[in-house]
Amino acid sequence: MNFFKRIVFGIIIFAVVLIPAKLISRLSFITPPDWLPRSELIQILILIFSLILISVFSRGNWRNYGFKTISVKSVFRPILTVIVTLIVLQVIFAVNMKLTGAKAEHPGTAGMSLFQLFIYVFIFASIAEEIFFRSLIQTILAPLKIIHLTIFKIKLSLPVIMSAFLFAFAHLGLLLAGAGVIFTMNIVLMAFILGLIAGYYREKTGSIIPAIAAHMTFNFIGGILPLAIMQLLSQ
Questions:
Q1: Which of 51, 55, 34 is nearest to 43 (CA)?
Q2: Which range of residues forms the domain containing residue 162?
Q3: Could you tell me if residue 166 is left (phi over 0), alpha (psi between -120 and 50 degrees) or otherwise beta?
Q4: pTM for this structure?
Q5: How many domains does the chain contain in total?
Q6: What is the Cα–Cα distance from 61 to 155, expressed in whole angstroms?
Q7: In 3D, which of 122, 162, 121, 124 has the Cα closest to residue 141?
Q8: In whole angstroms, what is the distance from residue 220 CA to residue 22 CA?
């Protein structure tokens, strides 16, 4: 499969998983149980569709798709990278929101309890999205990793950049959910940077575990922790 066909194939897989998941999750006759927010139903569908496709493409060799164990030490660096990066991004985000007067409200987490935020945002969303973007899509694009961009001596391959771009692009759906333009653009930028970090360590270690750890750290510090503090202060 040549360069162009590989790119198109990756984009098709992205659409084949994401579009049906979004459409099905919004069907009015599908009523999730009380403990499952409708906004998280899409994550379940994404995970199911991704695992089905990985099962088909891998032909039993799930290790190629990042399903392999690594040392605990290998997880520390992506977590530390996310923490340092997120501190900078949060400052930029806060200044941007302050200057523009935009509201920092995420429609997907509205009304969730702290327990639901922890289970669905910190754990489940991190796992589902990383299996979709870094395990499925990035592996499909892996033959293109000979094409890369070097920034500050860090080599970012085309599969890493593409999976990060598609991950960020998927967050534009916040606009349809009612989020403001400024807030959405900030989230898209942060998603792209998270995607680069997660993708880089997925490629470097050959495992999906560092990517999931980076995503969990990002969601906890960037999303759950501020919301938890706000909920506690409001009590």
A1: 51
A2: 3-234
A3: alpha
A4: 0.91
A5: 1
A6: 27
A7: 162
A8: 24
